[in-house]
Amino acid sequence: ENSDLLMKATNFDDLAKAQGSGKLGIYYLVQNTTHFGRDLDRVDEFYDFGQRISQMTYNYQNWVGSGCKEKNGSGLTRFGHELVEKLNDIGMLIDLSHANMRTMADTIKASNKQVHISHTACDAVNKNNRNTTDENLRLLAGKGGVVGICQIREFITPLKENNLFEYNI
Known about the structure:
The protein has 169 residues and is an alpha/beta fold. The chain is 32% helix and 15% strand.
C-alpha cells in the first residue's frame, strides 16, 4: 500500500538517495544459503534480485557448514569454500551470525573480503551457542570485519528458570 515510501537499496548510494527523498531504503538478506542449493549460478540469480547479504548457515548443518546448534558440527565444507569465493567475486557480504565457531573461523580465513557477524554477543561474558568466542572476534578484527553486539537477554545474562519476565510493578 505504501510502496511510494520504500526504495530497494543495493548499495550505499541507494541508501543515501532513499534518505534524501524521505523514503525507507530496503536491502535484502537471507539468514541461510540453502536457497542457493549446491548451484553457484543461483548466487547470480539472487544477486540480480537484489540480495546483497547472506548468512552462511542458520543454526543447523547445511551444504556449506554447521550452524551454532549442531552437536557435532563441521567447519566450512568444500562447497562452502567455493561459495565463499563466489560471494567474494560477486560482492555479496557474508554474515556469520548463527554459524558454529569452526565454520565461522574457517569462513573468516577463507574470505578475501571482510565479513561480518551482524548479531551476536561475547561468549566470554555469557556462554550461549549464539555468542562468539574471543578467538573468533580477534580473527574477525584481524581481517577488517565488523561485529554487531546485540542486547538479546539470553545472549548477555544467564536466564533464571521461571523468572524470565519478572517485573516489579
